[in-house]
Amino acid sequence: MTATQELLRIVLIGCGATLIMDLWLMFLKRIGVQTLNFAFIGRWVGHLFRGRIAHASIGKASPIAHEALLGWLTHYAVGIAFAFLLTGVAGVAWMQAPSPGIALLTGIGTVGFPLLVMQPAMGLGVAAAKTPTPFRNCIRSLLNHSVFGYGLFISACVIEWTAR
């Protein structure tokens, strides 16, 4: 496999895993479970470009032009970055013989990003401590990122299967 093929596979694995997570989030939303508004991620990123890292409440921060689009693009870029993390840890050979364990561990490990970076920066506190149900929110984040981890594995399997 050439370096270009490896890079393309990693990008596709990240996009596929993120799509699987999005399907999971759509299912949760359909059954009445509140999910993340990606426009708030776009708003936060937009304010980063203006030099503002943390907010008391991202919902009360001034809106950013095209924040929903920016949020979705950021969401997929982060998914791709986490796929690069996985292949950096497991090695690029993992893509030709994917195993679920390291993919799931990567997904679980990525939950640290929302709990320790995103939620505090958006005014929700570390591990959603400033929300009415912090434990429930942490469990939900853990489940969502576990689905992402399985998505890494499933995407890698589908890509490897189609490459044969």
From TrEMBL:
Transmembrane stretches, start-end: 7-27, 76-95, 102-122, 142-163
UniProt keywords, alphabetically: Membrane, Transmembrane, Transmembrane helix
Keyword Metal-binding in annotation: no
InterPro entries per UniProt: DUF2938
Top-level division of the source organism's lineage: Bacteria
KW Transmembrane (keyword) present: yes
Name of the protein in its database record: DUF2938 domain-containing protein
Species this chain originates from: Dechloromonas hankyongensis
Higher taxonomy: Bacteria, Pseudomonadati, Pseudomonadota, Betaproteobacteria, Rhodocyclales
